[in-house]
Amino acid sequence: MRTIPLFLVVPGGRSNPLDPDGATTNDLARNTVLVMDTTLASLRVWPLWQKARHLAVSGVHEDSATGARAEEFCQTLARGLGNKCAISRELWLATELQAASLRAIAAAEAAAADLVIVSVHHAETLPGEVKSWLDLWLKPKRRRPAVLLALFDPLYLGSSAAIQSYLQNAAQRGHREFLARTEEKPFD
After folding, report:
1. How does pLDDT run across 103-139, given as a tens digit for each residue?
2. What distances in angstroms separate CA 101 from CA 71, 73, 96, 126, one per listed residue?
3. Model pTM score
């Protein structure tokens, strides 16, 4: 299960939708690396991450499938950064955030993280405990830049436009960069 962004940024500043329907497995494998590099390279923090010896990742996911998606992204990120950068990650199951004490611990971890991931299925809104966790994460002022990454199901399964908008607004309120990605369509 590889993840790709909704749009591929090509030289010259144009954005083209990435349509995997006409591509072969090998084409998609090559494009996934290209897209990952292009997407991450557009982040203001990417040059800092490339020089870092350690990158902290924190996040929340809904279930084993969304957790696997977050883990896969972290592995791809690790490959992109190379062996000189160690990635530590703490991923929380959304239901664990129902307990206020655990939500506070998870928010403190996210506040110290360089990358915060929200990996969810399509829905109209985020669960209340995830919204509360985000609010707690955004409260402390950050000295270092951070990125909020939203990972979603494939588009053919539905839309996450409302959640994406909510997360993008949260990132802006907290002066964090925002990136949204969706899984690619599985091969038949």
Report:
1. 999 999 999 999 999 999 988 899 999 999 999 998 8
2. 24, 28, 10, 20
3. 0.77
Q: What is the pLDDT of residues 161-174, one digit of tens each?
A: 899 999 999 999 98
Distance separating alpha carbons of residues 42 and 174, to the nearest angstrom: 19
Beta strands 177-183 and 3-5 are: antiparallel
- CATH among 3.20.20.30, 3.40.50.360, 3.40.50.720, 3.40.50.150 for 3-183: 3.40.50.360
**Domain spans of the chain, in order of start:** 3-183
Helix (H, G, I), strand (E, B) or coil at 14: coil
The rounded percent of the chain whose pLDDT value lies above 90 is 49
Which pLDDT band, with edges at 50, 70 and 90, does 38 fall under?
A: low
| Sequence-distant (≥ 6) Cβ neighbours of residue 23 within 8 angstroms | 31
Task: Read off the DSSP letter of residue 37.
Answer: H
Cα–Cα distance for residue pair 43/38, rounded to 1 Å: 9
The rounded radius of gyration (Å) of the Cα atoms in the chain is 16
**CA atoms in the 13 A half-sphere facing the CB of 107:** 21
Q: Is 55 helix (H, G, I), strand (E, B) or coil?
A: strand
